[in-house]
Amino acid sequence: MASAPLLPEPLTAAGRSSEKISLPTLQSKMKCDPEGYEFELILIYRQFHSSIDLFKMQGDSSFGSMSGVGADSSVVKDLADRALFLAHVAPFYPKHLSQFWSELAEFLGSNARSLPSGLRCHVTQALILLINRKMADLRETIALFMNLQTLGDRTLKKLAFSHVIHSIRRMNRKHKNEFLNRGLQNILFPLLQNEEESKAKRSLVTLCELHRRKVWFDERTANAICTACFHPSSRIMIAALSFLLDYEKIVDASDSDESSSEDESTKLTPQAVISKEAIYKAHHKGTIASKKKKKAKLQRAMRSMKRQQRMSSERSSLNHYSPLNHLKDAQGFAEKLFSRLQNCNERFEVKMMILKVVARTIGLHRLILLNFYPFIMKYVQPHQRDVTTLLAAAVQACHDMIPPDAVEPLFKQIVNHFVHDRSRPESIAVGLNVVREICLRMPLLMTEDLLQDLVLYKKSHEKAVSVAARALMSLFREVCPSMLVKKDRGRSSDPKARPKAYGEVSVAEDVPDADLLQEDVGDISENDDIDSDGSLDHGIDNMHDEPLSDGSDENDDIENEANELSSDDDAAGSLNEHEADDSTSDEEDAVASSTDDDDVNGDSENDDEESKSDSEEEDHEEADAHSGSARNGTENKTYKSLKRKASDFDSQLIDGDTSLRALKKLAGSKLGEAPSELEGDGILSNEDFKRIKELKAKKEAKVALTKHGLLGKGSNAKSSGFKVPDSSQLSIKRVDPTKLEAHLKQKLSKEERLECVRAGREERGKYQSRAAVKQKKTGGLSNRQKEHKKAMPLAAKRARVARSRQEKKKKNKGGKQFRGKKAWK
Asked: Among 426, 438, 431, 344, which residue's Cα sits nearest to residue 380?
C-alpha cells in the first residue's frame, strides 16, 4: 500500500464541511455511522503505516540512545494515537482491519527494546484491546506478552502480566476449556525450563498465580512448578521452594480478586437467621404483594446461607492442600532434591527451605528416605539457628512406615541434647514437645524407662516444662498405658492398648463407625426394656422382694456362659465377665443398702443375733446359701455403711439395675435373640448412613466438650478428652514450628491492666447517679413530681402542717428517756 504523506492539519470530513475534527470526535462518529466514514478510516490507516516507516527510517539513521530511539516526539505521539484509534474502531471495520493485530504484534516483537516506554505501553494497550474484543487469539500472542515482561519496564511488565492472568481466567470462568488450556500450557512449560533466567522467572510467576487462583488447578501445572526446584538458577529454585512452602498460608489469606461483590457483601454483613416466624409470615400474613416480597427475601437469605456453607466447605477441604499432593514420582522428586541439598553451596536459609520441602514430601507421601535422618542430626543442637524449624521438619518426616531403627539415633540425640537437668527450661519444653510429636507418629521409639524419666518433669516449677510433660503423659495414657507408672495411668479408655507393630495394618472388616449405630440401637432396646418392666423405682423395690438364691444362680450361669464366649472372642469375653462381676457386686451393695436403716437403729448385740439367726437359716435352707454369705459379708462393713451418703446409695441402686439389664441382654444374645436390627442381612440403607453421620458428629462434640471441661460430671465425662489422630491425618497436616515452642501467658503490669480496663470502657458512657439520669429524661414529669408542684388550697396546707407537727411530737416522745430531776433545782 502506498504511503501517503503525514498531514499536519487536523482531518476534515469528506464532502460534508470544511470544519476540523479531532480523533476522539471522529472516533465517536465512526462508531455511529461506520459506512459513512470509510474513507477517513483508510486515510488514517495509511497515516499509521507512514508513521511506522518514518519511525524505522529514524532508527536506521542512528538517532538512538541507550534508553531508546531519539525520534521526534510528534512522530511518537502520532503513532501512538493512531494505533489506539484504529484499535477502538476495529470491530466496526472487520474487513479493513482484520490483519491490524498481526502488524502491531510484529512491530512490538521486532522493535520492543528500541521503542520509547510510552509508545511501547500504548501499542501494547492497543493489542490488548483487540484481543479482548476477540479480533486476535491469545495463543498467538502469549509468547509476545511473556517477552514483554522481561524488558525491565515496570509499567509494561505489570500490564502484560495482568492481561495474561485475566484473559486465562475469563476463558475458564464458565467451564474449563481444556483444549485452549493445553495449548497455552505447551507454550509456558518450555519457558519454565529455559536457561534464560528472566523468561523462566516470569513463566514461574504466571503459573504460580494461576494455580493460586485455582484457574489451572491440575496435576500438570503442579508438577511443572515442582520441577522448577531443579532449575540451574538459584533464584528460580528459591521462588519455587517458597511457593511450595507458603502455599498453605496463601490459601488462608483473603483474595480480593476471587470474591465477587455479592460475596463481599455477605462477608461484611452478619448472617441473618431464618426463623419459623419469618417463614410463617411470608406464607400466611399480609397482602399478596407483601407475601411476595417476604418470600423473595427468604429465598435471598437461603441462597446466601447456601453460598456461605459451600465456601466454608471448600475452605475446609483446601486447608491442608499443597501442590506436592500432585507429584507423579514423589520418591524420585525427594531423592533428587535431597541429593541437591547434599551438594549445594547455598546459604543456610536456602538449605533450610530445601530441607523443609524434602521433609514435607516424605511425610505427605509416606516415603522412605533413610539417609535424611542422619543428615539432619548434625543440625539438631539447642544453640542452632532456627532449631524449631529443623525439629518441625524432623517431625514432619516421621511416619509409621519408616523402620524405628532408622529414626532412633535422631530421637536419642534430641532427648540427650534438649531434655536434661542442666538445660534451659525453654530447651526442655521444646524437647518434650518434639518427643511427644514424634511418639504420636512412631510410638515404638519410646521405651518404658525413658518415658517414666520424662514424665517426672511434670513436677517442675517451670510451667512450660510441666505442661509439656503432662501432654506426653496424656498421650501415652491412650497409646500404651502400661508403660506408665500406675499412679500416672489415670482413667484411660482402653487400659490394654498397645501400639501397632512395625508393618502392622488394621484391615476394615465392616463399615466404618457402624458400631455407633449398633450402640444406638442397643440404647433404644434398653429404654424399651425399662418401659416394659415398669418404672425404675418399681424395679428397685422388686429387687428386695425377690429371693437372692435364684438371682445368684442365674448370675453364675451367665458368668459361665461369658467364659465360654471368651474362648471365641477374648475381648468380648473379658468385657462380659467384667460386667457380670460388677452386676453381682452391685446386687450385694443394693441388698446391703436396703438393710442400712435397720442396722443404724439397732445395736451391735442385735447385729450379732441377726447374724446367728441368718447362720441357722443357712443350715436348714439350702436354697438361700448364697444370699446368707452375701449378708455376712455386708454385715462386716456396717460401720462403713453408716457414713454412706444418700447420693451414693441412689447411684449404687441405678448401677445395679443397669448391670442387671446388661446381663439380661447377654443372656438374650446367648439364647439366640437378635440384639440389634443390623444382624439381618448386614446391608445399610441411606437412612442408616445418615444416622451414623449424626452419631459421629455427636461423639466428636462430646469429646470436644470433655476436652474443654464443659461436659457435666457423670458417665459421659468418663470419655477420653484426647483422641489419637490417624496416621493419614498426621501426614496431611503441616507441622507448625511455633507450636513446638513454649508459649506462656506472662503477667501483665499494672499499666497494661489499666489499659485493658479503659479499653473495655470506651463504649460505656460516663457514670451518673440515678437522680441525674431521671432529671435528664425527656418524657415529662412523673406523677410524684407533679404532686409537689400542684397548688394546694389554704385549708389543706394548714391541715398538712398540723398533721406533721403531731407526728413530730409523737416521734420525740417515744425517743426520749426519763432521766429524773436534777439535784440542784
From this structure: 431
Give how far Cα 542 sits from Cα of 340, 361, 531, 539, 545, Å: 80, 66, 15, 5, 5
Tabulate helix, strand, coil % of the chain (nearest 5): 70, 0, 30
Q: How confident is the model at residue 397 (pLDDT cuts 50, 70, 90)?
A: very high
- CB distance 229 to 194 below 8 Å: no
Identify the CA nearest to 404 among candidates 545, 500, 300, 266. Answer: 500
Q: Which residue has the cell 503423659?
A: 473
pLDDT value, residue 821: 57
Reported pTM: 0.62
Which range of 339-343, 567-571, 611-615 scores highest in mean pLDDT? It is: 339-343
In order of 474, 528, 542, 585, 643, the CA distances from 590 in angstroms are: 36, 23, 12, 9, 16
Q: In the beta sheet, which residues pair with residue 20?
A: 12
- What pLDDT is recorded for position 761? 75
594's grid cell: 436396703
460: left (phi over 0), alpha (psi -120 to 50) or beta: beta
Length of the chain: 825
pLDDT digit string, tens, across residues 723-757: 777 777 788 888 888 888 876 667 788 988 888 88
- Cα→Cα distances 723→51, 478, 489, 702, 736, Å: 76, 8, 16, 12, 19
CA–CA dist 426, 423 (Å, integer): 8
Average pLDDT on 106-119 reads 86
